[in-house]
Amino acid sequence: MSSNPIAKAIPSSVVDACGQHIGDVIKIETLSGLSGRTVAAVFGTDGSLVVKGPAPAAEVEVMRRFPEQFQQYGIRTPGTLTIVELKSSETWILMEHLPDPLPRNRWGADPEVLAVLGNLHGFPAELIKDIPERYQPRWDNTMTAQAATALSLDGPTTLHLETIADQAGQLFEPDCVISGDPNPLNWRLDPDGLPVLLDLERLTVANPAIDLTIMIPGFPHREDLSAMLRAYPGQNPPTVDEVLMAKAWSVVELAAMSTEKLAVQSVVSQLRSPFLSWIDAL
To answer: Rounded to an integer, what distance in angstroms lies between the CA atom of residue 97 and that of residue 163?
Structure first.
């Protein structure tokens, strides 16, 4: 295990904390993601868990304060086992390991996934607004310019995105609690086959269109979104236009992020062609 790069990235005191829950550590496996943080499944003689770190302050606050309230609202998230604070000021989260991914045939407008998101969107927003350093989505000209560079966009397409951005202000109003990144890879199944939402570091308050558009892979048509919104159980569903604008924003944000994160660049390059075909029709 000592030659495993992911094992070397986890402080020894965090590995020791893992051992208190799962016995002697046998194996550590990296889990994929674009956050740039260390996320790994740790296997021991008496079980397994997931470790994440250094965790952002906002996610630590969420995992400390809200597990019981989330459960009361029907929001399934991994159980928090321990939060380890190091002398270096880093914080690591040890949480329940749920190995079963959301099956591909449930990606998109799955009723049980929509139910969890609808419950999250009904969580009291005032409890989230005071979380320190929480993620706050935005769309400004700087972000559009960065995305235009990353996607090699021409002038008319960049101008088209700037026009959409000018119309998208309602996406970022603090209407309700959102996950901020409920993409299909951020869900697991619990032992009963029910969906569990992972990765709460972007939990914030905004328009639910952001969650719904990220939940749907690819670039949906209006008809697909209309069907999804009819099935959405939230009290204040967004409009089709809001979800479409949120999809454009999500690509712009990801592309802008790719200028600083190498892991994101390959994802963005794969999105470029279908995005350009889709955005022309928007």
So the answer is: 43
State the CATH class of domain 104-280. alpha beta
The answer to whether residues 81 and 49 touch, using CB atoms and an 8 Å cutoff, is yes
Confirm if 40 and 29 have CB atoms less than 8 A apart.
yes
Structure tokens at 111: 């009723």
Which residues fall within 8 angstroms of residue 257, CB to CB, at 6 or more apart? Answer: 264
Helices (H), the chain: 5-9, 12-22, 57-65, 67-72, 111-121, 125-129, 141-151, 155-167, 209-215, 222-231, 240-257, 262-280
Q: Which CATH architecture has domain 5-96?
A: 2-Layer Sandwich (3.30)
Nearest to 1 by CA among 38, 28, 41: 28
Sheet holding 80-85, edge to edge: 25-30, 38-44, 47-53, 91-96, 80-85
- What is the DSSP code (8-state) at residue 107? S
**pLDDT averaged per 10 residues, the chain (length 282):** 70 96 95 82 97 96 96 97 94 98 95 98 96 95 96 96 96 95 96 96 98 95 93 94 97 89 81 94 80
Domain ranges (residues) in the chain: 5-96, 104-280
The contacts of residue 108 (CB under 8 Å, 6+ apart) are 184, 215, 216, 217, 228
